[in-house]
Design goal:
By secondary structure, this protein is mostly helical. It contains four helices and two strands. The chain starts with a helix and ends with a helix.
């Protein structure tokens, strides 16, 4: 099974490299529509890889929970914490009253887009802080052992 997964990963990487090379080396005849087909193909390929990664992560977690049900409590706590962080970030973003300038249309972005952007930034900050704290905790606990 491990060999099959390696071959699949090599094939996915080869397709990715080929698509990127196609996008880079395609010479557009019209600069305004610069290799839109190649860029579009790369975007769709990226979406497919993202969906595949999400499905693999979710299915892997579900299979692991079925094999070891004692870890279910930690998984549920983590899931609730993530949902709480997203909800709190969204509520905090709703309270902000600023507008983001849309230079292309000479106006402002809609309120919903501004709230989603602000909430996404807050979630990113919380995730980065949690990663730094986890790294520091791991380094300190390893040093004390």
């Amino acid at each position: 099974m491990e060999k099959v997964l390696r071959y699949i990963l090599v094939a996915l990487m080869a397709v990715s490299v080929a698509l990127v090379a196609w996008a880079i080396f395609t010479t557009p005849s019209d600069p305004t529509t610069a290799n839109a087909t190649a860029v579009g193909a790369n975007l769709y390929w990226g979406y497919a890889l993202l969906i595949g990664a999400i499905l693999a992560a979710v299915l892997g977690a579900c299979m692991d929970m079925l094999k070891k049900p004692e870890g279910l409590k930690g998984t549920i706590i983590s899931f609730v914490a993530i949902i709480a962080i997203v909800v709190v970030s969204y509520v905090l973003a709703q309270g902000h009253t600023y507008e983001i300038v849309d230079l292309q249309n000479k106006g402002f972005f809609p309120r919903f887009d501004t709230v989603i952007t602000d909430a996404s930034i807050m979630v990113t900050y919380v995730a980065m802080a949690a990663a730094v704290i986890a790294a520091i905790y791991s380094a300190v606990s390893d040093a004390l052992k």
